[in-house]
Each structure stands twice: as structure tokens, then as C-alpha cells.
Design a protein that fits this description.
Blueprint: E1 2-6, E2 9-13, H1 15-26, H2 30-53, E3 58-64, E4 67-72, H3 80-106, H4 115-129, H5 137-150, H6 152-180, H7 185-203, H8 205-223, E5 228-234, H9 239-243, E6 251-257, E7 263-268, H10 269-279
Parallel strand pairs: 2-3, 5-6
Antiparallel strand pairs: 1-2, 3-4, 6-7
Helix pairs in contact: 1-2, 2-3, 2-4, 3-4, 3-5, 5-6, 6-7, 6-8
Length: 293
């Protein structure tokens, strides 16, 4: 649900967050709900501010129970350095708010009802978001660091899988706490949404990988020089298996060998990617024409 526009960015409120505010209202603590709303808003706009600073387009911000989603241009996720900086900005903003709150308390600028909740809210959101699990900020940092070793798609699958695992733990803890009376339904709702969001991230991995392939030429044109990696493939290896080994921020050359281990030629990455788009994942790499010998 769109609730407005701030600093030129569309602001949306996820139904799960709206339901959480409703729970605060029913419990008679709407002031705490609005405090949480403000904390999450600062968290997300910290992402947006750093993204704009790095030249990444920011489309909109959606507030979720455990933080939010800042939707950005496609070059963010396929650029590990940018993704790390942007992801880290959210928890850093919460830490800054926590320190500011502590300073206000030490100088007497304090509300005994909302002050402790404000501090708690910032620490919970910051701590929760540093978990190495998509779609949390820590998961984005984890994926960016892992992508250089196992590739963007595999890193996304692993980080999203951790997100699903953490969601199950939170759901079980929330259900148990609700049954025993020491926790509210908000923990259960957060776990359910985390599982949904992690599943969505996992499903988007193939599309993210395609975007990564298309971005590589732009990286080379923009930077002029990027590191190169040589891969060795048998001529009957399918293109899908070859490109699975492509890493972000690297340009690859594929040495193609026959079954008798005779070198047939060397294919630059752009030809392999063009062949992938033209012929599909199962097309043999050795049938791509014009390798440089």
C-alpha cells in the first residue's frame, strides 16, 4: 500500500507491517508502533542514501516487519562492492540511532515509556538484519562475499536457504512462545514473512544471474580493466554448466578441448553469453563458432 513520497522516493507499507501496527493499536501501545515505524523508515532511507551516493537508482521503499526493502537499479546486486556498502548502511543507521538515544538519556532528554523501547527497537532491527540470510542485510553482504567464490546464482541459493532456515527457527520459537504466553504473535508473523521473502529471493536467483551476465560488458566498458579468469571445458559441455562458473567482477576466457584433449580454441566470455542467449543452456560450448585460436 502506497502511503506517500519522501525525497523523491515512493514509500509503501507492506500488509504485514500494517498488521503489526494494528496489533500495537489493539494492545493500546500505538505510540510504540509508530516509534518502530520511524526506526524502520530511517533504516531503509539509509540504504537509499548510500545507493544514490554510489550512483544506483532507487525506485521505492517498502516497510516490512523486520526492516524493509529498498528497490534499486539492477547493477546493485551484480556489483558486490556496492551491495556490501548499501546493505551495511541500514544496521549502521540503527546503531547511530541507538547511540543518539543513549546520549539523549545521559543528558536528560528522555521519555521513560518510549525511550527504552526506542533503544531496544534499534538494537533488535540491527541485530536481526546482520544475520547472514537473505533477504536481510547480512544475507546480502554474505552473498556478495560468496559470489566471488561460487558464483552469484549459487551464492543467492545458499543465502536464501539460510533465510528459510532462520525463518523456520523463528516460526517455531514464536509458536512456542505464543503457546507458553511469553511472546506475542509478532514474532510468528515476522518468521512467516521472512520465509516468504527468502523463498522469493531464491526464486529470483536465475533472473539475477541473467542480469549479471548482461552487466558484465558494461563493467568492462566502464572500468577499462577487470581481472580475467581462464576456464577449461570439454567441447560437449553445455553452456549452462560453463556459465555456472562465471564470477562477478571477472572476465572469463574458456579454453575448449576435444574429447582427445586437443585445444580447439579459446572463447571470450561475451561469445559464450551470446551463445547462451541464442541457443539455450544445453547447447554444447564447442559448437559456438569463431573461437580465437
Amino acid at each position: 500500500m502506497k502511503i506517500g513520497r519522501l525525497f523523491g522516493i515512493n514509500l509503501y507499507l507492506n500488509p504485514f507491517f500494517l498488521a503489526l501496527l494494528g496489533l500495537f493499536f489493539v494492545a493500546g501501545i500505538l505510540d510504540k508502533g509508530l516509534t518502530a515505524f520511524g526506526v524502520v523508515l530511517v533504516h531503509e532511507f539509509a540504504h537509499a542514501a548510500v545507493a544514490r551516493r554510489l550512483g544506483v537508482t532507487v525506485a521505492d521503499v517498502e516497510l516490512l516487519p523486520f526492516g524493509g526493502v529498498t528497490r534499486m537499479g539492477g547493477d546493485m546486486a551484480v556489483n558486490p562492492r556496492k551491495e556490501i556498502c548499501i546493505a551495511a548502511a541500514g544496521p549502521a543507521a540503527n546503531l547511530a540511532l541507538f547511540l543518539a538515544g543513549m546520549a539523549c538519556r545521559n543528558h536528560g532528554l528522555w521519555d521513560d515509556a518510549l525511550g527504552p523501547f526506542f533503544l531496544q527497537c534499534n538494537m533488535v532491527i540491527a541485530a536481526f538484519n546482520v544475520l547472514p540470510a537473505l533477504p536481510l542485510d547480512g544475507g546480502r553482504v554474505y552473498r556478495a562475499c560468496l559470489a566471488g567464490k561460487i558464483g552469484l546464482k549459487s551464492a543467492t541459493y545458499r543465502a536464501a536457504g539460510l533465510g528459510q532456515a532462520w525463518a523456520v527457527i523463528i516460526i517455531l520459537a514464536g509458536a512456542g512462545g505464543l503457546a507458553l504466553g511469553w511472546a506475542g504473535v509478532d514474532i510468528l508473523v515476522t518468521g512467516l514473512f521472512l520465509f516468504y521473502a527468502a523463498t522469493r529471493e531464491r526464486a529470483a536467483a536465475p533472473y539475477l544471474f541473467i542480469r549479471h551476465m548482461m552487466q558484465k560488458k558494461d563493467d568492462l566498458l566502464e572500468e577499462g580493466v577487470i581481472p580475467a579468469v581462464i576456464l577449461v571445458a570439454r567441447e560437449d559441455a553445455p553452456l549452462g554448466e560453463v556459465v555456472r562458473h562465471f564470477m562477478p567482477r571477472r572476465f572469463h576466457f574458456v579454453a575448449v578441448f576435444s574429447e582427445k584433449l586437443e585445444l580447439k580454441g579459446v572463447l571470450p566470455e561475451d561469445k559464450v553469453v551470446d551463445g547462451l542467449f541464442a541457443f539455450g543452456l544445453d547447447y554444447p560450448v564447442g559448437r559456438i563458432g569463431g573461437p580465437a585460436g
